[in-house]
């Protein structure tokens, strides 16, 4: 009997309509298009502007896109995982609401949070459930409304982040396709360098902290950049070596879209040509948990059955890792 592997069999995505370009940001904060583009590679990002709509709205839209494209019956979904750093509410599960709204009434669900590595960790989690043989259809969603905790007077952060969501369906595979290997890491000493401190249980928001804007996200850019460059490239290189792969064996690099220089450094570390590097940071910015599934969403028509994909991510916490993955289907 062949081993069950966990493959992605469908992809969906959603981006809000409102485009926040570098030119618009020039009117809001002391920055300019050339400075942003040179340092990050970002030209524009999408923002969910409608009042009262949160991360679940993005997640639902991405899931509905996948369902409509494939004709999947939501009642067949057994588990919904929403990877997010910006849940709708504290305590109440964003994934539970998402599952109910898309009609996945037979699924259990939960949120998974590991900052920008959330979806990467979610891939490992979904694959483990599939490989166990207990579940056959798992909907994994990466969604973040980053604009909800961005200070648009802070040029260190407001130029980077955008809103969006991507969704994938994990199912069993008997051809050896899907997740092949993973290398996941974390280091809690890094949490002071990238976080939204106030609003959590250790630092509840009060009137003064709110007035001082301490509920907004904070980033020590240099420290995060240095750690991201080293760690993302390191795990990508290690997973290649561990699986006896060369750059010629790799079809695509799907790296977290935080900064083009970090992506380039990872590609260079594994000697991968530019045309094999998935890139959409210029259009969406850093959508946190949504960057990896949105890469698949944008590149789905170019992916071929058997393609070797190296996923890599780095996020606050610090969290990081790499996954070696074989694509399971050809484009329509």
Compose a concise summary of this entry.
32% of the residues lie in helices and 24% in strands.
Describe the structure.
This protein is 32% helix and 24% strand. The model has no long low-confidence stretch (mean pLDDT 94). Helix 3 runs parallel beside helix 4 and helix 8 runs parallel beside helix 9. With 332 residues, it is α/β, with parallel strands linked by helices. It has helices at 22-26, 33-40, 55-70, 94-101, 118-132, 155-158, 207-211, 221-242, 260-269, 281-284, 291-299, and strands at 5-14, 18-21, 44-47, 79-83, 108-112, 138-145, 163-173, 178-186, 194-195, 218-219, 252-255, 308-315, 319-326. It starts with a strand and ends in a 6-residue tail after the last strand. The strands form four sheets. It has a five-stranded mixed beta sheet, sandwiched between helices. It is built from eleven helices and 13 strands.
For the structure shown, list the relevant keywords.
32% helix, alpha/beta, 332 residues, five-stranded mixed sheet, four-stranded mixed sheet, single chain
Oligomer designation: single chain
Structural class: alpha/beta
Placed side by side, the strands forming the largest sheet appear as: 1-7-6-4-5
Q: Helical amount among residues, as a percent range? A: 25-40%
Strand elements, count: 13
- Average pLDDT over all residues: 94
Low-confidence regions:
none
The helix tally amounts to 11
Strand percent estimate: 15-25%
| Overall 3D shape | globular
| Radius of gyration computed on alpha carbons | 19 Å
